[in-house]
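User: Predict the complex with adenosine-5'-diphosphate.
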Amino acid sequence: MNPSAVPMGHDGVHSMEVRNVHKSFGSFDVLQGLDLSFKDDAITTILGPSGTGKSVLIKHLVGLLEPDEGDVLVFGQNLWQISEAERYEIRKKMGVLFQDGALFGSMNLYDNTAFPLRKHTDKPEDEIREIVMRRLTEVGLDRSWTKYPNEVSGGMRKRAGFARAMVMDPKIVFFDEPDSGLDPVRTSLLNDVILEMHAEHKGTYLLVTHDIRTARKVSDYVGLIWKGKVVHYGEAEQAFEHDDPFVRQFLSGESAGPLGMD
Ligand SMILES: Nc1ncnc2c1ncn2[C@@H]1O[C@H](COP(=O)(O)OP(=O)(O)O)[C@@H](O)[C@H]1O
Ligand SMILES: [Mg+2]
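Assistant: Here is the predicted structure with adenosine-5'-diphosphate placed in the model:
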């Protein structure tokens, strides 16, 4: 398979799709038949309370977890009907911003950001420098590149993680609770950077969060996970501006509404 030749959002093929995905840990059924075709070149936010399987969903989409049942398709490829090497090639086209930034404590922000390029490409250092400094500038860290992760704020660590997630020019970018642990000002700053980066580079972004403010600010599309399934997926504007009954019940935690509580 040549991953650069696979369709991306053309001819009805979505970059990312999950079909009837089930995943249990012991007796705990986390994903219970999850279906979703992500909109290409859009920012989708999946909202769900803690422990509903948001991180588990991301791990399925990056090929780190195999579903017990169902299919995960990325660029039209079924992740578990291809080889490990092919999954690895697909993963190179994905960027992930983990919850804590997941930076290497022993490397400064520059080396952290350069890491994927040094690992996955044979680009010369001057080319790497150009890419790294461009990305660090985009996230507002061009003057902090010599700093180590423990010398900067949580917001800066997340932005450095974002810069690192972008150096390979990913077609798909995941954000696992980008707002967690950040105060509202830093959350807002990071959300701005996410929007600017998307406007500049496009791509299919999936963000998971339990924070409605982040969802409101960055989303083109919003999905709700409820009892291991996606119970709602639609345009963010529709969901937030038009007082969608699913979204309203979800946000208010009311027992009366379209989401069954039993
Ligand atoms: N590798 C694992 N082994 C056992 N249980 C897990 C594992 N990963 C996740 N879980 C459980 O699955 C549930 C959903 O986890 P997660 O996706 O991390 O939730 P969240 O929506 O907060 O990201 C949690 O109850 C968690 O304890
Ligand atoms: Mg999580």
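Residues 54-55, 176-177 surround magnesium ion (ligand 2) (CB under 6 Å).
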